[in-house]
Amino acid sequence: MFLGLSYAEIGITLGVLLLCGLGAGFLAGLLGVGGGIVFVPCFYFIYTLFFHVPAEVAIVVATGTSLLCMIPTSISAAMYQYRAGNSDIALIKRWSVAMLAGVAVGAVISSLYGGKWLAVMFGSVMLVNSANTLLRAKAKPAYSSLPQPFYQRIIGFCIACFSVMLGIGGGTLTVPVLNACSVPPHKSVGTSSAVSLFVCVPGAIIMMLSSATEAGSPVGTFGHVNVLTALCVVPISILAAPMGVNIGKKIRPVTLKRIFAVALFIISLRMLYSGLFD
User: Which terminus of the chain is more exposed, N or C, with fewer CB under 10 A?
Assistant: First the structure.
């Protein structure tokens, strides 16, 4: 026994975490989603099933840890996307202050009022997002261009706020928004990788420092961030991100949208069920 787990359970846990890092890093590079759509449900299930952490604590720690894990993943994906010419730096600068404000608001709400409702919120938002993306994969964009800068900043604030609360980085919401405003899919994915950095770095810091570690949290947790989990998944996720970028450049935009939607749909259904019935 170690850390309250049998050696078999430790082996299974490490294996799942390594696969989680591989999948998250690959999706970060391929879809610009930061990896959070994989990290959050994976961490949540590991904490509740193996470490017997209360669900209301597990979901908050899962979201905070996801933000920490996505920092190096997002850096790696953003660098490769920038080199590939897929990043809209002007848009990032325009949204930056609003996104930082959204991060602060979302992190405080999650730290102070987090619970199983976050799992329900995660599943619901992702389910709507995936259905919209899948059904509109070939549809024309809803708008011919992005709105005026003032409204863009409001969009950036909302994306950052909800992303921190859900532990998803920012790309998961940024991609469909940019696509709806006639931004090309590959440009949307590349820009969303940079957006994730504005969410993950300050979000993880606030989640770690804004409150004391709750009773029942898994070993290695500081505030609402589990450092031991991050050490297991981050190295493999960094190595996997470039593979996703390289493959993404060879895939048609419509196919890229469908991959994004299917991945979201499967994970969101499981998370929603867990939040409502587990």
Answer: N
CA distance 162 to 176: 14
- Arithmetic mean of pLDDT over the chain: 82
Element (H, E) at 26: helix 7-31
Run of H or E including 52: none
- At residue 177, what is the residue type? V
List the one residue out of 217, 34, 37, 39 whose CA is nearest residue 111.
217
Cβ-based neighbours of 237, under 8 Å, separated by 6 or more: 21, 22, 24, 25, 28, 35, 69, 72, 73
Beta strand ranges found along the chain (DSSP E)? 221-222, 225-226
CA dist 183 and 277 (Å) reads: 39
Residue-level length of the chain: 278
Quick one: which H or E segment has residue 146?
none
The label of the residue with tokens 């969009």 reads: 155
Q: CA 132 from chain center: how many Å? A: 18
Q: Which residue in this structure is represented by tokens 């804004």?
A: 210
